[in-house]
Amino acid sequence: MSTTPAGRLGAGRYLTAGNRPASTVTTVHELTTADGATVRGVLATVPGATTVVSLMHPRQDLTHHPLVPLLLQAGAAVWTQHTRSVNNDLTLVHEQALLDAAAGLVFLREHGFGSIVTLGHSGGGTLYAYYLEQAGLPPAGRIAATPGGRPVKLAEAEMPLADGAIFLAPHPGQGQLLLACIDPSVADEQDPMSVLPEFDPFSPANGFAEPPASSAYTTDFLARYRAAQRPRHPHRRHRPPAPGPRK
User: Fold this and answer.
1) Above 70 in pLDDT, residue 239?
2) Distances (CA, A) of 74 to 46, 50, 61
3) Fewest Cβ atoms nearer than 10 Å: which of 55, 117, 121, 210?
4) What is the pTM of this model?
5) What's the burial of 93, exposed, middle or buried (CB within 10 Å: 0-12/13-18/19+)?
């Protein structure tokens, strides 16, 4: 394997961040949410900045997001914040993450910025869309409990609205993502090699081609494949037809 950066395992996976202006001042802040949790954020600002762009993700640290230097170069301040479950998807509760986001926006309002713009990238897009939807409701109209029944204090929280919102490659949501990952061609989930030939995406009859050739599926096949995914959702009972042989 080459020893050059381009030849390293994982090369190109992340964009290289540019240089922050020399005048950038960076400070770390610890905040307390409306329900008593502790979250941390990093504020990077440049002289004269009146607009702050807030970046946040439900479970990732965006402190070194490649857009941060570009936003600073454009004259905006940048706030990057953790949730209480950063780097831990197992403990992530999205309704609690809304309280984490609220604490950050309260801090930015109190810091005196004239405009706050949320920037949701990937899962951050889903988070900020959910936050802004709830923040725009009267407190009594906000969600009072998670789908699992855990109380959440959105009605008691100060939830400032942003002055603008940017969505960059927003995540469709875990439900939609996982639904799209279901393989409806597996006939028996106790036997992963069982197959329903009419849904088999690895069958040449359905459009599969061995690499380096490109597979090409018809609109009809894709429609039938997607429709067959829904009954396989774990919340629905479905017993597929008898399996055929896996080729």
Assistant:
1) no
2) 10, 12, 22
3) 210
4) 0.75
5) middle
Query: To 5 degrees, how large is the angle CA 122–CA 125–CA 129?
Result: 160
Distance between the two ends of the chain, CA-based, in angstroms? 35
Sign of CA dihedral 174, 175, 179, 182: positive
**Which of 143, 160, 63 lies closest to 102, judged by CA?**
160
How many residues belong to the chain? Answer: 247
Tens digit of each residue's pLDDT (9 = 90 or more) over 170-201 = 888 777 878 888 999 999 888 988 999 999 99
Q: Which single residue is written with the structure tokens 């770390």?
A: 28
- Residue whose structure tokens are 């030849």: 7
Residue 173's contacts (CB-CB under 8 Å, 6 or more residues apart) are: 126
Does pLDDT of 202 surpass 90? yes
228-239 in b/e form (b: 16+ CB < 10 A) is bbeeeeeeeeee
Model confidence at 54, pLDDT cuts 50, 70, 90, reads very high
Residue 63 CA, chain-centre distance (Å), reads 16
Is pLDDT larger for residue 237 or for residue 135?
135
Strand bridging mode 25-32 / 38-45: antiparallel
Is the pLDDT confidence value at 240 over 50?
A: no
Query: Are 56 and 128 contacting, i.e. CB atoms less than 8 angstroms apart?
Result: yes
- With contact defined as beta carbons under 8 Å apart, do 119 and 166 qualify? yes
Report the candidate in 219, 227, 246, 247 with the shortest Cα–Cα distance to residue 184. Answer: 227
Q: Which residue spans within 58-100 are E strands per DSSP?
A: 77-81
